[in-house]
Amino acid sequence: MEQRYATSPEQIPGMDTAELRRRYLVPGLFADDEARAVYTHHDRVVLAGVRPVGTTVTLPTFPEIRSEFFFEHREAGIVNVGGAGTITVDGTSYDVGHASCLYVGRGARAVTFSSADPSGEQGPARFYLVSAPAHTAYPTTLVEAGTGTVRELGDPLTSNRRTLNQYIHENGVRSCQVVMGVTTLHPGSMWNTMPAHTHDRRMEAYLYFGLPEEARVIHILGRPDETRHMVVADEEAIISPSWSVHSGVGTASYSFVWAMAGENQSFDDMDGFPITEMR
Known about the structure:
zinc, KduI_N, metal-binding
């Protein structure tokens, strides 16, 4: 488990490209038959990736979280961005298809991951996990792709028409802190969020997926009056502090997993910034 310490907006002006990527970009989460994780001190969120190919992978405890088992004091949302797979939680198996989501509540002890057909068209399952501290236990719940709360947002005239699937949220699957869903851009649309916004009460993390190998997303971050950008590849994640905007435009169509944790779970609790006010 890699540690990422929290940062302040005052640090942004002095960061070069290498430091921006070192602090906020999370590459290489998916490795064959292992679980890789990053602990960010922004709201103490853990991002993890699991790609089971030749064996079933057990979620480790990780000594950095100082718990007897991973979910002793935590909860998580898990989205499969690869081929079909199975997550087993304390002996109960859940078939998690592409872009489907499993919420795992506090208290789950044994969690394992496996792929249905690693050599199939979509390849092995690739499970993306976002975890936050939890104060109580909610039941483990599966939400299949397209069956959550669906919101159609944006406009093709501004290149940001998109379908947003809310899975874990205040009016959907219950959780303590985690809010999670998947957004897919419509053909011809490339902006995932515009106008950009912040929400000082929650951090957010993006995982871009479904992006062709030769394509990239230009992700904008920083304070609205002091923005920077990073060039992001398929299945790379972004840590977005609560004070930072988070918006991107791709060179090809793509989807992304968005996840938040912090003060509240209100999806619409955000402060928008027209592009004319950004620098």
